[in-house]
Amino acid sequence: MRVAVVGAAGRMGRLVVGAILDAPDLHLAAAFGREGAAASGSDAGTLCGRAPAGVSLRPVGDVVADVWVDFSLPAGLDLALNHIRPGVPLVTGTTGLDARLRDRLDATAATRPLVAAANFSTGVALLRSLARIAASTLPSADVEIIETHHRHKRDAPSGTALALASDVAASRGVDLASVIDHGRHGETGPRAEGRIGMHALRGGDINGDHTVWLAMDGETVSLSHRATARSTFAMGALRAARWLVGRPPGRYTMDDVLGLGAVGAEDAFTRS
Asked: d(Cα 8, Cα 26) in Å, to the nearest integer?
């Protein structure tokens, strides 16, 4: 299976490239990076600590591939959408998308199978399912979501935290934008019923911790996931890529990939 990787010189991109080179059923068709990047022209295998792969890092362009995997920035994803041939599947983990790019990503699902996920960890997919169950089972619980990431992460809150908040809101039949509170400061007064609190912590080299905290009078439920190795996200993305090839056009989720049977909550990418 021929895989093109967008953002191949980044933290996640290098892990994806390495996993492709290690897999007997996958072939690295192209490794794309930002035009003018310092690593341009470098061998993709060398960049990820493997033997030379014979594929050089180059700006996004046309290529024959069975599937594209994107872990870049919004501008990189936007550019990639200009070059992916109709019908060719796309797996993207790029977050921080604006409304225009979210709409464009939705539109592309009419011509190709697409998985756009905030987090490709199989454990996070399970956490999201549990969060939906907990939110609907405990409709009066106060919900707070806490996420922690390394100091280099560019966006906050994380796409995974937003996806979890979207799951909670959808399970309760409310619009996320109308109930979310991003942190607290000053004289806030008593906590309003039905709000969803969101908190982002940054520091060190933390791969990603997410907790959904549901508090009630007399008891509290805490659902948590901790990523101990970034490679788990690369392996999950490639699992999605394998699953997508041969599927009809449409927008799929990691629940579809893993057969978890989603409760119908949209991913945070399509939420306002």
From this structure: 16
Burial grade of 140 (CB within 10 A; 0-12, 13-18, 19 or more): exposed
Q: Which domain holds residue 196?
A: 122-226
Q: Is residue 84 domain-shared with residue 114, that is, in the same domain? A: yes
Q: For all residues of the chain together, what is the average pLDDT? A: 92
Q: pLDDT digits over 167-187, tens only?
A: 999 999 999 999 999 999 999
100 shares its domain with 185:
no
* Annotation says 153 is catalytic: yes
Asked if residue 249 has pLDDT above 80, the reply is: yes
- The answer to whether 50 and 23 are in contact (CB under 8 A) is no
Q: Could you tell me which of 248, 244, 247, 246 has the C-alpha nearest to residue 120?
A: 244
Q: What average pLDDT score do residues 105-114 get?
A: 95
Residues 6+ positions from 204 with CB-CB distance below 8 Å? 150, 151
**147 and 237 both lie in a single domain:** no
Q: How many CA atoms lie within 13 A of 184 on its CB side?
A: 12
CATH number of 129's domain? 3.30.360.10
Buried b (16+ CB within 10 A) or exposed e, 37-57: eebeebbbbebbebeebebbb
- Position 242 scores a pLDDT of 97
Confirm if 182 and 171 have CB atoms less than 8 A apart. Answer: no
What span, in angstroms and rounded, lies between the C-alpha atoms of 12 and 206?
14
Phi, psi of 130, deg, nearest 5: -65, -35
* Per annotation, catalytic residue among 149, 199, 210, 225: 149
pTM of the model: 0.76
